[in-house]
Amino acid sequence: MDSNYSADDVANAKGLQFLALSVDGYILGRVFKAFLVRCQISLMIQIYDYVCSLHEELTFLRLSRWTKVKGLYIITRYIPFLVLIMDIYLYFAPNENPDRCRMVISIYACLTVISLLCSELFFVLRTCALWNNNRIILAAILSTLFAVTVASLIADVLSVGDSHVTISMIPRITGCYRTSHGFQGSIPFLLLFAFQLGLISLTITRAVRNWRVFNSPLYEVVVKHNLFYYTCGLLLSAANVLMQTLFSQTAYRLVCEVLQYFVLAILATRMHRNLWHIDRQARDSVTDAYSTS
After folding, report:
1. Cα gap 149→78, rounded to integer Å
2. What is the pLDDT of residues 74-89, one digit of tens each?
3. Distance of alpha carbon 243 from alpha carbon 248, whole angstroms
4. pLDDT tens digits for 245-290?
5. Which of 202, 115, 201 is nearest to 152 (CA)?
6. Angle between helices 68-92 and 54-63 (to 10 degrees)
7. What is the pTM of this model?
8. Cβ contacts of residue 171 below 8 Å, gap of 6+?
9. Which helix (H) or strand (E) holds 167?
């Protein structure tokens, strides 16, 4: 490589090369020689989940009533595709303006926070339902969620403003590059970890108290879904805090970020569909029982 390039230019280029996609002449249906790690994970997770659950997805969208929760489902389900589009644009669109890079990264950060917010809202509503929509619990959870969302957005935007956002100075390597400031980048995940820890505590407390009182399959499904979702969320949040703190200058942190955004969205929408199908089957069985009697 030309010795005219500085060590920083070479380091930035290596980061971009790691995030670059090498198609090597192959088009759809052929094997990729190399694949952008971040986009590969997000794209493959989304496509695999969508193809595997296409029938259930169409059934739910066609037969379920139009409610606010259904609108939340659609946003949660499809906003990760916008995140993916922004991700691809960020690393592949020719860009010679660092300020424009900073703006695109800020939009990307806001979309990821919105995606996490929508995923969490499903289980906020379920947790409140377990507590019989207690107004004090509802107000406390929603206030905390609002504070966590605002703080995460501010932390993300400030981290972009304080980061070293640049383009590659070496020809044929395009895209924007941003360094991370360790702990500052872990703040949103740390806040999310604390919020999810509070919700899983509320779920466990309510489940222990009412396990023998509510002996219905639907109640058991809601509790199990909540516990599984929060367990996954806590593990992913903890992993992201560690990655942002210990590996802030590597691409490994990007892989963990992608996993959290997409896995939580998939879990939230899949569990909502599953709950809807169970409720629908229960209603159909009751209707059949009445019709045969």
Report:
1. 20
2. 999 989 888 888 877 7
3. 7
4. 877 666 667 777 878 888 899 999 999 998 888 888 777 665 555 5
5. 115
6. 140
7. 0.76
8. none
9. strand 165-167
